[in-house]
Known about the structure:
The chain is of the alpha+beta class.
Amino acid sequence: MEEVESKLQNVVISDVKSNHIVDNSHSVLKANKEKFRECQENGDEQLPNGLQSPTTHQTSTENEGSTELSELSSDIVTEEKCSETPESCETIEVVRDNKTFRITYKVYESELELPSIMKLIQKDLSEPYSIYTYRYFINNWPKLCYLALYENKCVGCIVCKLDIHRQITKRGYIAMLAVDKEFRKLKIGTTLVQKAIRVMRANQADEVVLETEITNQPALKLYENLGFVRDKRLFHYYLNGVDALRLKLWFR
Ligand SMILES: CC(C)(COP(=O)(O)OP(=O)(O)OC[C@H]1O[C@@H](n2cnc3c(N)ncnc32)[C@H](O)[C@@H]1OP(=O)(O)O)[C@@H](O)C(=O)NCCC(=O)NCCS
């Protein structure tokens, strides 16, 4: 996931403040195209990190981080990439210490929800993702973004994507998952993952993958409880130097 972020950052000229970003999405695209053209003119065989031909539509063969140019335009491309949503809203009651929590799970609906999603996820990150990263995932796969609400406050969320990997596998990818500290161990994380997986399955996914820090016991336990297995160790994957584990769940 850090990989996605750094590659997206790589094509962003400078760290733009969020209130400029909507207006700047076209300039980012333009900058990419220009950079691509420049590489072509220079005869560069190796394109800079994350930059691919604007005309190619192949998916990453290396890892989830490779982002094709058309995907970077997620603010302006509104093509439906994940059409089946088995359930869009559900309320589940959980009891802890004699207190009942009514948690409502709902699919992402509008950009108005983005600030609360970002706030929640950023709390647990040492280095915040840019708004481009959120928009890349959420605008392309809104039905793979679920929120958990308690009294209308966002206390959990999951952000995913679903696309073709190595031209044959329909692969779901869990990019972000976070639950507010006050609401942990109420199965909110598990429920969010289950909901996203259900949507992926309904959209013919073959498998789902994610990366998590090797030290992140709560996440590892959560995913392993759901049947994910440790597929690969990615050394020094995160900017803080920590290794990642790639976890995978096969549907067929
Ligand atoms: C990981 C995280 C999403 C779990 O959310 P949650 O709602 O508390 O998880 P759940 O209540 O569904 O817990 C499911 C299982 O995970 C494990 N788990 C959850 N929290 C744990 C903890 N603090 N220590 C050990 N295991 C834990 C348990 O096995 C738990 O099952 P159990 O309650 O039957 O024992 C949450 O801790 C979080 O937001 N962490 C910070 C962000 C993060 O690490 N995201 C994942 C990145 S991939």
